[in-house]
From TrEMBL:
InterPro entries: Acyl_CoA_acyltransferase, Bact_Acetyltransf, GNAT_dom. It holds the Pfam family Acetyltransf_1. This is GNAT family N-acetyltransferase. It comes from Rhodovastum atsumiense. It comes from the Bacteria. The lineage of its organism: Bacteria, Pseudomonadati, Pseudomonadota, Alphaproteobacteria, Acetobacterales.
């Protein structure tokens, strides 16, 4: 299910929507790979530093839909997929952390930023995690991802730690910032 709203940017009205993916049309997969490619080239790819090529991206996203612990959420601008995020549940053996989930690999293509799609995507993932009974949502970002830091801190994520050797990009070691958010009403752990 996706709820569509509209947003006026400049003089133009745009439709914005976010949905959970269960399968891809060829057109949707093409648009998703295009968006991922553009985000990676821009420097904010989800782990990738260099674009891995269209075939690898297609295999990657088809694979995500097959992983039982992962749910893929898609953002659309005027009906076209321009970004995604993943809700990752803990594996079944991790009983001690069965109340926590992780938001990973969130991105919006550079050509679709500033419309409020990442905020909607994040809130949709939170809603899905909450509906599944999770009480804590974890996430982490590179310290260079300033837009993401503003996004998550604006949505109430609590910064709890800094990883000094989180990522390597262009031969440089980059720190990572770790966040969590309590999902249930009143921010309590039941
Ligand atoms: C971070 C990212 C997802 C934001 O996407 P977006 O759709 O443009 O974000 P939104 O339009 O929903 O903006 C929501 C909030 O994010 C923050 N934000 C977004 N872009 C920003 C920017 N360029 N600079 C500072 N803050 C920014 C703001 O707080 C904004 O709220 P506001 O509009 O009320 O000021 C996008 O820039 C991106 O894909 N970056 C590269 C990948 C990445 O960092 N992913 C997240 C970590 S895995």
């Amino acid at each position: 299910m996706s709820a569509t709203t509209s947003s006026v940017v400049g003089n133009l009205q745009h439709s914005l929507s976010v949905e959970r993916a269960s399968e891809f049309t060829e057109e949707d997969l093409h648009a998703l790979c295009e968006a991922a490619d553009a985000a990676i080239i821009d420097g904010g790819g989800f782990g990738w530093v260099n674009p891995p090529g269209r075939m690898a991206l297609e295999r990657y996203f088809r694979g995500v839909l097959l992983v039982p612990e992962r749910e893929l959420f898609l953002a659309r601008l005027d009906g076209i997929i321009v970004g995604s995020a993943q809700l990752v549940r803990p594996p079944r053996n991790n009983e001690a952390q069965a109340f926590t989930a992780t938001l990973m690999h969130s991105f919006i293509a550079p050509y679709a930023r500033g419309f409020g799609l990442a905020r909607r995507l994040t809130l949709r993932v939170e809603e899905a995690a909450r509906a599944l009974g999770y009480q804590v949502l974890n996430l982490d970002v590179r310290e260079t991802q300033e837009a993401a830091i503003a996004l998550y801190e604006g949505l109430g994520y609590i910064r709890w730690g800094v990883h000094p050797a989180y990522a390597r990009v262009g031969g440089r070691t980059i720190r990572g910032i770790h966040y969590f958010k309590l999902l249930q009403p009143g921010g309590r752990i039941a």
